[in-house]
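Quick one, tokens below. Sequence please?
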């Protein structure tokens, strides 16, 4: 082999080293094997599939995170209403049995305040959406939360309570239950949308708001302000924990001190109201427990999605990314080889020129 042939061969090898150095420099800077998808063949289809799976899990994670935010706010409202029902059953009602008119006046005021608070609790929003309105997220489920005590339902119940002595406790309790169950416009305190839904047959009513949690899997989490989602109420009930709580708070707000003089009817009526608060308490506890289970299920799915997504991203990285430590080591070795090649070519060129001059 002549020195010219040797120089040409060394130049070709040096060019390859330069290309390798450029590639390793780029990989070190980006962490990627290549910025061109075609260079990853034959792993391109697998990488695309893995990225698609990871993207779906990202979307489910976002939906679940938003839905958990909604359920946590709803849980707060349910827990507070549960506290209201429990406080009136366990604390306010025993004081009323004492027959103290001053005590009654204070409890009436507490009942009106609790009705207003309940209305606002049912009107709670998240990201501009009313959470107890079903799909009617732009409109409040209780149009007039501060007017519950003085509204049509409260007024009708007050009229029945005013006739307690004439009609008796049993008839008065039946009448207040019927009023609380009414969906009639001008009586029901709920929105037009909820009243229209309640007028439909159960099978035709809108289902719970649900979140897509996985491929082919929906998790229902929505709760309507006027009806139970977790299960039926039991006991002295209208069939709805919300209506139960409203009915009994309105009943207490309507009591008058002189009705205490009619002890038999008054005591029997208080027994019914106490049982109504107990029914509301049970219904709310069931609803809060059911929503807690839904939240836990969403959180578990989100955790599992995160684990699977980490595995998928690791697999994508094994296809598209480089081992930086190993790449840097190869980069340094290639740079040394290229420098040695330059020196060898330089030496060979000097020898060839010397021979030519001789």
């Amino acid at each position: 082999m002549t020195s010219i042939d040797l120089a040409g061969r060394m130049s070709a090898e040096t060019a390859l080293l330069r290309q390798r150095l450029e590639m390793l420099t780029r990989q070190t800077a980006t962490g990627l094997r290549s910025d061109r998808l075609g260079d990853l063949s034959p792993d391109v289809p697998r990488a695309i599939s893995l990225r698609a799976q990871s993207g779906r899990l990202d979307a489910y994670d976002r939906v679940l995170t938003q839905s958990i935010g909604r359920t946590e706010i709803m849980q707060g409202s349910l827990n507070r209403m549960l506290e209201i029902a429990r406080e009136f059953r366990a604390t306010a009602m025993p004081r009323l049995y004492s027959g103290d008119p001053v005590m009654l006046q204070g409890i009436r005021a507490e009942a009106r305040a609790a009705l207003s608070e309940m209305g606002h609790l049912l009107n709670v929003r998240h990201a501009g959406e009313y959470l107890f309105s079903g799909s009617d997220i732009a409109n409040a489920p209780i149009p007039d939360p501060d007017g519950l005590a003085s509204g049509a339902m409260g007024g009708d119940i007050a009229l029945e309570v005013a006739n307690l002595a004439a009609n008796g406790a049993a008839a008065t309790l039946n009448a207040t239950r019927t009023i609380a169950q009414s969906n009639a416009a001008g009586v029901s305190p709920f929105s037009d949308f909820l009243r229209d839904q309640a007028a439909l047959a159960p099978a035709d009513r809108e289902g719970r708001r649900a979140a897509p949690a996985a491929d082919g899997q929906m998790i229902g989490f929505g709760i309507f302000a006027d009806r139970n989602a977790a299960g039926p109420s039991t006991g002295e009930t209208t069939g709805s924990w919300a209506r139960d709580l409203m009915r009994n708070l309105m009943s207490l707000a309507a009591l008058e001190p002189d009705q205490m003089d009619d002890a038999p009817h008054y005591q029997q009526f208080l027994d019914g109201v106490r049982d109504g608060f107990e029914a509301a308490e049970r219904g709310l506890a069931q609803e809060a427990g059911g929503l807690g289970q839904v939240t836990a299920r969403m959180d578990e799915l989100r955790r599992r999605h995160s684990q699977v997504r980490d595995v998928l991203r690791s697999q994508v990285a094994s296809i598209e990314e480089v081992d930086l430590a190993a790449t840097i080591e190869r980069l340094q070795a290639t740079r040394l080889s290229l420098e040695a090649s330059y020196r060898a070519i330089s030496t060979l060129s000097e020898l060839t020129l010397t021979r030519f001059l001789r």
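The beta strands are 125-126, 129-130, 210-214, 217-220. The first helix runs from residue 3 to 30.
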